[in-house]
Design brief:
Shape: globular
Largest sheet: 7 strands, mixed
Number of strands: 21
Number of helices: 18
Length: about 650
């Protein structure tokens, strides 16, 4: 249910249920169970022990269903009795497994399998009159549970007045959750009101289903890393070291941008009375519900500092943080998670390199080679280092189309070059640079290579080993993740020799007043309490992108870029800035006789968000004799309708 202003309420933990005097009703339990599993499931016979707090007939002498504290074993599940006996053709259910221990104060979660095909389709139970449907959590067997959702027959099956305290979603979200849960394992939050079905779930009597990839656009309830290879959520895996989740399988179906858009709550709003058209993706991207929920779930259930405590929440938080690191490793194509250092974003990651490797390696007279396309974040730290050390900055020019002049790059490289730094994609123009070729050229001169991947990771494969980058940096908020989190990739042999940047907790091995010894990388470069919750969100964002498939995203965006480039030629007086044949996402332009700020304000009044200014790339603007451009930029959720709205608004501006 939505609040009066249309927003989704924040889920809160249900209040403890009052003690019920409702008689134990195996008919209802059986209907609910059969709705989930078809007739392959046989519920307890009449006379089985009900859950604590319900009045019921005496326990049968032959045994009863175990309560929450009793371990299932021989005689724990009584023989089924009519009318719920399984048919002879139904497959046998597996024997009960030992129950897991839920974290203190949390809602225990039990993993349930999908109905067996042999058992036929699930059959909903009729809801008692006057009762409200309960929501349920659902999740892949290998990931933690996600947000509240209702869906399909299962929501009806649990339509009991005994199930209470779980907030419902709006109808469209419920429908999406129903589609997303089809054929997947399901987990239900407990306690509801204490009931025998709760006891059955807690007994862990059902197996986990195999992992299933979430299709593009499905509003799947999030897990932190829902496609992981582990058979259970990280907080139920015992004390073994966490295993990095495997990459989720990209969808093999057609890219459905309209389905994808439903995952992004911010895109559903109106601005100045018009539907929001978000074309400011090069500045930051909107966040899918899966990312938002992963962050909320972390703070609601698992919030703790990491690494230095023996309690359960610390272990869960540590697992989540380190799993996020390995997701970043996989996404970038790095060889080891030890090569991934979390930072606040691209800017901090470049400063880290400049202040550690740079101070250690760059001397007076050495040369740092950059391009005219750099963001300020890849200029200023090197200027500061050059001023401190006496090194020299050299700059590679670009063509009128916005391409690096490779002949000049080759000429400027030499024995004094210590570092070559360049973007994989220009944030101001969208030019895609030949980074593999440029890295190889620099390495032939013994220089190290830093690649700024802030604008590339939402659109292209990073492939840090393929590129042979020594350093690679990016920001999470550019790739549908939260702000304030990003990462540095650095080759292991470099990280091992680099001095620490900041001192404090976490980055030390031993401390006395006489001497400190440091931790191994990456901890050596992560002093203090890190941004744990947003690292979790970054992991969820990357997995969201991986489920859709970076190649599908690139194809969709390239087709949209070509469409937009042609449509914008229709606007009188519009001049594109940056027309390289190899481009990604960005459409920088100026309008004859118009200030870019005025154009930006006009578009905002029509509900269209673009960036207007120098884009933290003043040298690039100066190359064209400009102080700024208007910069629409595309993301995976943009459509031809967005482009049409932009072009129509620009026509209107020309006629004002």
């Amino acid at each position: 249910m939505n609040t009066p202003d249309g927003s989704r309420p924040t889920p809160t933990a249900p209040a403890p249920p009052s003690q019920s005097t409702t008689p134990f009703d195996p008919d209802l339990v059986g209907a609910m169970a059969n709705a989930m599993f078809g007739e392959a499931f046989a519920p307890p016979a009449r006379g089985a022990t009900p859950a604590q707090g319900l009045s019921a007939p005496p326990v049968a002498a032959s045994g009863g269903m175990p309560g929450p504290s009793s371990a299932p074993g021989a005689g724990a599940f009584p023989a089924p009795a009519p009318p719920f006996a399984a048919p002879p053709s139904a497959p046998a259910m597996p024997s009960a497994a030992a129950p897991f221990a839920a974290p203190p104060g949390s809602n225990p979660i039990a993993v349930m399998p999908p109905p067996s095909p042999a058992a036929g389709p699930s059959r909903p139970a009729a809801a008692p009159e006057g009762s409200d449907r309960s929501s349920f959590y659902w999740m892949p067997a290998e990931g933690p549970p996600g947000r509240c959702a209702t869906g399909g027959d299962l929501s009806t099956a649990f339509a009991s007045s005994a199930v209470q305290g779980i907030p419902r979603l709006d109808a469209p979200a419920e429908a999406e959750a129903s589609r997303a849960t089809e054929g997947r394992g399901l987990g239900f939050p407990l306690p509801m009101t204490p009931s025998s079905i709760g006891d059955l779930l807690l007994a862990g009597a059902f197996p986990s289903p195999p992992p299933t990839a979430v299709p593009p656009g499905a509003s799947a309830a999030p897990s932190y890393f829902g496609s992981g290879a582990s058979a259970a959520p990280y907080f139920l895996q015992g004390t073994a070291s966490p295993t990095a989740p495997a990459a989720p399988a990209a969808s093999s179906g057609a890219f459905d941008v309209h389905a994808v858009r439903k995952d992004f709550p911010a895109l559903q709003q109106t601005v100045h009375g018009r539907p929001l058209v978000w074309l400011d993706n090069a500045a930051t991207t909107q966040k899918p519900r899966q990312v938002i929920d992963a962050i909320v779930r972390f703070y609601e259930r698992d919030n703790s500092n990491i690494h230095r405590a023996a309690h359960e929440l610390a272990r869960r938080a540590t697992d989540a943080y380190e799993n996020a690191r390995d997701i970043v490793r996989r996404f970038l194509g790095a060889g080891s998670a030890e090569e991934i250092v979390f930072a606040r974003g691209t800017t901090e990651a470049i400063n880290l390199v400049a202040q550690t490797w740079g101070r250690q390696s760059v001397r007076a007279g050495d040369e740092i080679l950059l391009t005219t396309l750099e963001h300020h974040a890849n200029i200023v730290p090197w200027q500061m280092l050059a001023r401190e050390t006496g090194a020299v900055l050299k700059v590679v020019p670009i063509t009128d189309r916005g391409e690096v002049v490779l002949e000049e790059y080759a000429r400027l490289l030499g024995p004094k070059t210590r570092l070559a730094g360049f973007p994989q994609v220009s944030n101001a123009l969208g030019t895609i640079l030949p980074v593999r070729e440029m890295a190889a050229m620099a390495h032939r001169h013994g220089a190290r290579v830093l690649v700024d991947g802030a604008q590339s990771v939402p659109h292209l494969r990073a492939g840090v080993q393929d590129v042979d980058a020594d350093f690679f940096v990016f920001s999470g908020h550019k790739v549908y993740g939260p702000t304030g989190i990003g990462a540095l990739y650095a080759k292991k042999e470099l990280l091992g020799t680099m001095p620490p940047w900041q001192g404090g907790g976490s980055m030390i091995r031993t401390v006395t007043f006489e001497q400190t010894t440091y931790s191994d990388p990456p901890a050596k470069f992560e002093a203090g309490t890190p941004n744990i919750g947003d690292a979790v969100g970054l992991g969820a964002a990357i997995e969201y992108v991986e489920r859709i498939g970076i190649d599908q995203i690139a194809a969709h965006e390239q087709a949209l870029l070509e469409y937009a480039t042609e449509r914008m030629k229709e606007v009188p007086g519009l001049r594109m800035i940056g027309t390289a044949p190899e481009k990604a996402s960005v459409l920088s332009f100026v309008l004859e006789g118009a200030r870019v700020e005025d154009v930006g304000r006009h578009l905002d009044a029509e509900g269209i968000a673009v960036r207007a200014g120098h884009h933290c790339a003043m040298p690039t603007m100066q190359r064209y004799g400009l102080t700024g451009t208007v910069r629409p930029s595309l993301g995976l959720y943009n459509t031809k309708e967005d482009v049409d709205a932009l072009v129509t608004a620009l026509h209107r501006y020309r006629h004002v």
